[in-house]
Amino acid sequence: MIELPPNSEIFYTEDGSPTLSLKKADGYVEKMHHSGGALSESLYIYRSALSETLSRGWSTRILSLGLGLAYNEIISVSELRKKDIADFRIYSFESVPELRDGFKAWVGGASGGKLAFVFDQVLKQVAAVQNVPSALLRTWLKEALADHALELRGSFPEESDGIEGVTLCYYDAFSKKMSPELWSEDMLKGTLDRLLARNCILTTYAATGALNRSLKHLGFSLLVKTGFAGKRESTMAIRE
Length: 240
Ligand SMILES: C[S@@+](CC[C@H](N)C(=O)[O-])C[C@H]1O[C@@H](n2cnc3c(N)ncnc32)[C@H](O)[C@@H]1O
Fold this sequence. Notes:
This protein has a single domain (8-239), classed as 3-Layer(aba) Sandwich (Rossmann fold), CATH 3.40.50. It is 38% helix and 23% strand. The strands form two sheets. The chain has a seven-stranded mixed sheet with strand order 6-5-4-7-8-10-9, sandwiched between helices. The model has no long low-confidence stretch (mean pLDDT 97). A hairpin with a 5-residue loop joins strand 1 and strand 2. The protein is of the alpha/beta class and 240 residues long. S-adenosylmethionine is lined by residues 22, 32, 42, 65-66, 68-72, 93-96, 99, 155-156, 172-174, 179, 182.
């Protein structure tokens, strides 16, 4: 049985796709996605950046923070394998062990439990928009985990040893309120500098002053991108 992490709850967003909320020790609760659509938001913010990276012919070395319900991982593997790209790496960070272990077990074929049910739904919904049979997409995920093209890691940035040359960064952390340490200018500048390739795209649903300053300091150009579902801004930054 693959069960939800403690202090988490499933919600359905406006496009019918599931999201999960997590509660911090101090009682603050945050959902992983915009209420307007977890899947739609993932396509708008993250799949579009993958398309930008592929259109430039760069190698595909993706850093994904964090795994959550694995929309970005499932979308990316689907997009890459559909294009017959076998040489890719996705380093996926997730600090909640139940999500990491649950995803691994589910990809391996385990079933039963609320988290497995949610992963099944995410898979089916991504498969439908990507026009891929869901059984094939699951096989692609299994192969990616088996040959380490998709690598699951723990907390960011602590568990980022050995990673360099990242050409695409999905910075899908919880907000500053939930995870202040992931949005500080010092952390962003130091950590990203070490991990990112010269040619690189970073994308996130968020738009903060510290992130903008860090990316400019690292030589990125910021593209003006409207946020998802009525949000004023999101961030897509390119260094090439
Ligand atoms: C906004 S959600 C990500 C949603 C996910 N991309 C998806 O497609 O479902 C943020 C995730 O980051 C995880 N997280 C929080 N702090 C982290 C850290 N320091 N390192 C790795 N993961 C972290 C949370 O547990 C949560 O699953």
